[in-house]
Amino acid sequence: MVVVELVESLKLLAEQNLSGLAFLAAYGVTWVACGVVWLRASARTAAFATLFQGMVALPAALGLSALIGAIGAERPVPDEITQLSVLVGTSQLLGLPFLVYLVVKHRYALVPFAFAAITSMHFVLYSWLYQTPVYIVMAVLISLGTATVMFAAAEPERQATPARVSFLTGGILLSTALLFLTLHLVVG
After folding, report:
1. What's the whole-model pTM score?
2. Most buried by CB count within 10 Å: which residue of 13, 91, 135, 166?
3. Percentage helix, strand, coil for the chain under 3-state DSSP, each rounded to 5
4. Taking a C-beta distance cutoff of 8 angstroms, is the pair 64, 22 a contact?
């Protein structure tokens, strides 16, 4: 009986948060913006923009969450699930030392690829939290898509390649946000 209650409360959490739409949209936009930066700025500047995009995306995501009513409302899950949600969300911070290492070693063009891989890993856990396989599909698409971009590049160190990785990652995040918007508002 407890499992049924947990699953039901997780479904209510997904409804309240539109399955994480605010975070997908905010980070999707910053990934696309990073792609533009990769095309217009130095590799060093673009790597730093990619590395610190969360400083823009997180407040935007929290603001969007407040707009959709996901912040400020009583959460339909126990506090332990909220704590788990925060841990899942912050888990990708453990990849920051590796990303900083790439920047320090001037391997700028690898930053978006490494960051996308770290990002895709942490999304798998959201499939359980929001009770949808869409997050697993999204994670696989980001992981395989960005690897394909890197393998297909004749010169991966050219700035067009990390730009493509950034555009692909942002595009998949934004597409997933649009899918969740459709599922929750139209179908839901």
Report:
1. 0.94
2. 166
3. 85, 0, 15
4. yes
